[in-house]
Automatic annotation (TrEMBL):
<dbReference type="InterPro" id="IPR019547">
    <property type="entry name" value="Lipid_desat"/>
</dbReference>
<feature type="domain" description="Lipid desaturase">
    <location>
        <begin position="124"/>
        <end position="160"/>
    </location>
</feature>
<feature type="region of interest" description="Disordered">
    <location>
        <begin position="1"/>
        <end position="32"/>
    </location>
</feature>
<comment type="similarity">
    <text>Belongs to the fatty acid desaturase CarF family.</text>
</comment>
<keyword id="KW-0812">Transmembrane</keyword>
<feature type="transmembrane region" description="Helical">
    <location>
        <begin position="112"/>
        <end position="138"/>
    </location>
</feature>
<protein>
    <recommendedName>
        <fullName>Lipid desaturase domain-containing protein</fullName>
    </recommendedName>
</protein>
<feature type="compositionally biased region" description="Low complexity">
    <location>
        <begin position="1"/>
        <end position="25"/>
    </location>
</feature>
<dbReference type="GO" id="GO:0006631">
    <property type="term" value="P:fatty acid metabolic process"/>
</dbReference>
<dbReference type="GO" id="GO:0016020">
    <property type="term" value="C:membrane"/>
</dbReference>
<feature type="transmembrane region" description="Helical">
    <location>
        <begin position="87"/>
        <end position="105"/>
    </location>
</feature>
<dbReference type="Pfam" id="PF10520">
    <property type="entry name" value="Lipid_desat"/>
</dbReference>
<keyword id="KW-1133">Transmembrane helix</keyword>
<keyword id="KW-0472">Membrane</keyword>
<dbReference type="InterPro" id="IPR053335">
    <property type="entry name" value="Fatty_acid_desaturase_CarF"/>
</dbReference>
Length: 160
């Protein structure tokens, strides 16, 4: 990763050797070596509240992604029933979108533009706000061990 100031050239160091000292190595432009930067970020980051012990790691190891213990647990809980639920949801969504599009086309009247434009903008803002609240809630509250909700909704949501 290249950290550059607006007044500094965008040339980055290509050195991949790690510094064994406590101060990160810099090139002649003042950029920190990318590997040293990763070590500094991991060292200075606040530890995760993780019962799986994933915070006890070497700074060069990956703490997220498919090798993360939590991701492995979530992936192991993906069932055939969950896949059926996803397929039914996709089919139902397509049917409702076609149904909605039909009625939009049938009742569309250009003379109502002064209602359509503000309604569309407010609809977009409302959907974005609602989506943000749902994402925050699903990421923050509950556990994948909760009956029904955890396995069917929180687990796949957090896995994606």
């Amino acid at each position: 990763m290249c950290l550059s100031l607006p007044t500094v050239s965008s040339a980055c160091s290509t050195s991949s050797t790690a510094s064994s000292t406590t101060t990160p190595s810099k090139d002649n432009m003042g950029h920190i070596n990318s590997e040293d930067e990763d070590i500094l970020v991991a060292k200075n980051s606040m530890p995760e509240d993780d019962p799986n012990g994933n915070t006890l790691h070497d700074a060069r190891e990956i703490r997220w992604g498919p090798q993360h213990a939590g991701a492995k647990l979530l992936a192991s809980q993906y069932t055939k029933e969950k896949r059926i639920q996803e397929i039914i949801s996709i089919i139902l969504c397509i049917i409702l979108m076609v149904y909605n599009f039909y009625f939009i086309c049938r009742y569309f009247d250009v003379r109502n533009w002064y209602l359509i434009i503000p309604s569309a903008l407010l609809g977009i803002l409302t959907a974005d706000l609602a989506s943000g609240i749902v994402h925050w809630g699903a990421d923050t509250w509950g556990s994948v061990d909760m009956p029904f909700i955890g396995r069917n909704f929180l687990r796949p949501f957090r896995e994606h």
